[in-house]
Automatic annotation (TrEMBL):
Descriptive protein name: 4Fe-4S dicluster domain-containing protein
Keyword Metal-binding: yes
Species the sequence originates in: Maribellus comscasis
The keyword Transferase belongs to this UniProt entry's keyword annotation: no
GO molecular function, one term: iron-sulfur cluster binding
Coiled coil: none
Ranges of residues in domain 4Fe-4S ferredoxin-type: 75-104, 105-129
Length: 129
């Protein structure tokens, strides 16, 4: 049977694909279309060999590799300092260490951030959006 390779596994062509969602490497930006029912974290990036994360943005790895495309197409997560409690949950889950605490509030360095948005899902008070 013919199939296509996603991560380390081969899936049949007739498996449902979730439109507009991607499995993306938080380090290098390599992306592949998300297959419904298959967690992204089960696949490893062929470049970095780290687990992929889910992204609902419709961008591709080529756009992530250039700074001009990055600044035009991606909106980075922002921290609402009024809500942020400085708990550090976002720091613990950031795969590229782009978040630090400054004066007891989370700060995201856009130069390092890969826009994987793992921090957004982890924040217990929803201060990152």
């Amino acid at each position: 049977m013919k199939g296509r390779r996603l991560g380390k596994r081969i899936f049949q062509r007739n498996e449902p694909v979730t439109e507009g969602e991607y499995c993306i490497c938080p380090k290098c930006g390599h992306s592949t279309i998300h297959v419904k029912g298959r967690p992204c974290r089960r696949f490893l990036c062929p470049v970095c060999h780290i687990p992929l994360t889910r992204s609902q943005n419709s961008f591709h790895s080529k756009e992530l590799k250039t700074d001009s495309a990055k600044s035009k197409t991606l909106k980075y997560p922002k921290v609402d300092i009024e809500i942020c409690t400085g708990c550090g949950s976002c720091i613990d889950v950031c795969p590229v260490e782009a978040i630090s605490l400054i004066e007891g509030k989370a700060f995201i360095e856009e130069d390092i951030c890969t826009n994987c948005r793992v921090c957004e899902n982890e924040c217990p008070v929803e201060a990152i959006n």
